[in-house]
Amino acid sequence: VIALGFQIANGKLIGPRDLFADPSYDRARKKANKLADYLRSMGPFEPHRLPLEDMEYTTMPLVMEKLKGRFEPIEEEAAATKEE
Q1: Cα–Cα distance measured from residue 76 to residue 73, given in angstroms and rounded to the nearest whole number
Q2: What is the per-residue pLDDT for 79?
Q3: pLDDT tens, 33-49?
Q4: DSSP state, 71?
Q5: HSE on the CB side for 3, CA within 13 Å?
Q6: What's the confidence (pLDDT) of residue 72?
């Protein structure tokens, strides 16, 4: 998200100015970063991106194949799998 400010003075366009650079946005920026960190700590979830089956024409299948041996089960998921 960006906020650009422009002004017309004496027939000239002045700007852009970053409106979010103002210190009045510091508290909102800090709160947004804290919330984003909290959401990221929960791991990936959809719709953070398209489902894997809809990404067949992107590089995603190649990336997933390349990383295939590097994935490790999360302890909670591993325990749930053993119980079934």
Answers
A1: 8
A2: 61
A3: 999 899 888 877 666 67
A4: -
A5: 5
A6: 86
Could you tell me how far CA 56 lies from the centroid of its own chain?
21
- For residue 7, the cross-strand partners are 14
Name the nearest CA neighbour of 20 among 1, 33, 3, 32. 3
As a whole number of angstroms, the distance between CA 18 and CA 59 comes to 35
pLDDT in tens, 14-30: 999 999 888 999 999 99
| pTM, rounded to two decimals | 0.41
Residue 9 has pLDDT above 90, yes or no: yes
3-state secondary structure the chain: CCCEEEEEECCEEEEEEEHHHCHHHHHHHHHHHHHHHHHHCCCCCCCCCCCHHHHCCCCHHHHHHHHHHHCCCCHHHHHHHHHC
pLDDT of res. 71:
86
